[in-house]
Known about the structure:
Shape: globular
CATH superfamily of the largest domain: Bacterial muramidases
Number of strands: 0
CATH class of the largest domain: Mainly Alpha
Number of domains: 4
Structural class: mainly alpha
Number of helices: 38
Radius of gyration: 30 Å
Strand content: under 5%
Low-confidence stretches: 1-31, 660-668
Mean pLDDT: 92
CATH topology of the largest domain: 70-kda Soluble Lytic Transglycosylase, domain 1
Distance between the termini: 80 Å
Oligomer: single chain
Largest sheet: none
Amino acid sequence: MKVAIFVFIILLNSNAFGDFSRGHSYEVNQSGDLIEQRKAYKNAISLLKSSQFTNFSKEKEKLKNYVLYPYLDFNEKIYRISRYKEKQIIKFLEDYKDTPLGQPLLSHWLPVLAKRGHWTVFLRNYERLVNPSNELECLHSYALYKRESKIAGLEKASRLWTVGFSQPKECDRIFHLLSAGGGITSEMAWSRLSLSIKANERSLSNYLLRYVSKNQTNLAANFRLVHSNPTVLKKVKRFSADSPENKEIVLHGIARLSRREPVNALELLNKYSKHLSFETSELNKTYEKIGTALCRKQKAQSLLDSLPIKLRDHPKLLEARIRHSLKIKDWSGVLVLINLLSEEKKNLEQWKYWNARVLSLSEDPADREVATDIFSKLSRGRSFYGFLAADIMGTDYNYNHKTHNISYDETIRLEENKSIKRALELFALGYLGQARQEWYLATSKLKERDRIVAANLALRWGWHKASIQTMIQLKSWDSLTERFPVAHKDIFTRHARELDIPISWSLAVARQESAFMPDAKSSAGARGLMQLMPSTARIIARSEGIKYSSRNKLLEVDFNIRLGSHYLRWMLGRYDNNRILASAAYNAGPGNVDRWVDADADIDVWIETIPFKETRNYVKNVLAYSAIYNYLLEQESPFIFSGEKKQFGNRKPAEKVSVPTNLSIRGA
Length: 668
């Protein structure tokens, strides 16, 4: 009996059988062939990596009927790419055109052709690439130069050279030819210098100084200086030349200065505008940046009104001004500014809500009636603003949940799809990146009904990201079960109970952070399902007495959820059990949130005026997702707890306001 139980546990832990996705009526395959094939596949890959090609070939022969045989063939060609001729590569592309393997194989093979100087073959097959890398783009430019047209090759090289980042070493040959032939003009040199400075590529901008013309040397030095220290622009005489280069330097520096000193930036721009003939479009963009920065200051109304630009033409600034008016409780200003939005923007839930929110404060009963009508309509939606409106109306939340009845036959039929089979098998073996590529290619070719079946199938396999992404591609927004899977429920529940945090909240954070991708890695270095930075994880682990061996531990689901839940508990404790502030801190860091806290602001106003757009949207999503998870978990819970509300709006109730009908904003 113990042996039987042990075997059963192994099968469950392998996450391997599609059989388990088919329901209790399905008879499990007892042959064990699949388990043996998987062992043989992993062994074959290991043999390849250790260059045991003879043994690999023997193992490969045994796997001709295995669903992942194309991946064995692919890996063999990747590891021995220099052995294959064009006909063999083309045959592979034809044989496996229904897989995502063709493009990566080409990307490995073309550099081999380039190294051997087989430029004609290179050019013939380069056209098969869909999204060539920068390395291949540069090799293609050289191939054009060598075999088809020197002019075409150098023209492409010019485009590749004029970018704000360093190109790979594959570009060196064609760039040398471009430079030797005088193809790098002073205009190109200045353009690339400008791009590199604006991209904050300091080493590259320093390198590019050698290419600028002699009469631009001082200008280039000034450009780099202004970028690193924009306050030098206060020496107006030094930057008084009315040249295109100097005007670009001035506008760039003022835009950078506006991030920290918007008042000084505006004063400087007004001074320079009297002496330099700026292009109107570029000047207005800079005013917009200054205005957006000014909106972060409480006492900036007069300066904002003084900006000589039309708000209708600058929607980013217009929305920033609406938030500024909300923050300073200029309710009439909010209405006037919303009225300046385009019709498309006005019809967004966000601005409908705030229009109603201000009208609800009006002394005029007719205005309040309009507000009630807007709130009533918004409350029918499943969104951040819909849930807020439902609270105002005192009505139930509307989730508009659509369920799908998937038949046994539909599931079986889809599981027989070769591409779906490969994707599921790759997922079962833990090759998550390849699994996703195979899945997305496979589902992109399916009809709508089959995509729904596919999303449900992925969910049954515990492949939450695939389920979510499939429904997003289908725009099936009401399919909550598939879009908001209760992933790793036992693990989340265990840690939530241990740490006394709402499970709906921790699920919502994970859904927002990674869509439940255990191998998720951000450009900033965050890892795993709850996107923890290794440095933060190390601090949590040390403080809580949890063993932390390496950052790769963060790719383990249980470990990641455990540390992430502890961090949520820390933030919840720091902010008196307020999920709104804790969520903002999880995203932007507690230091920022400590500076942003404003007990005088209403809770909805505070969220709407969070300075970072990413954090603002993050908090809205996490709150809405928490409500959805409460619904899916059949837990009754308010959208925002009374204790959370009490920490905001610590002032007298808002007085009724008069809503004029003919207000205008300067610059509108």
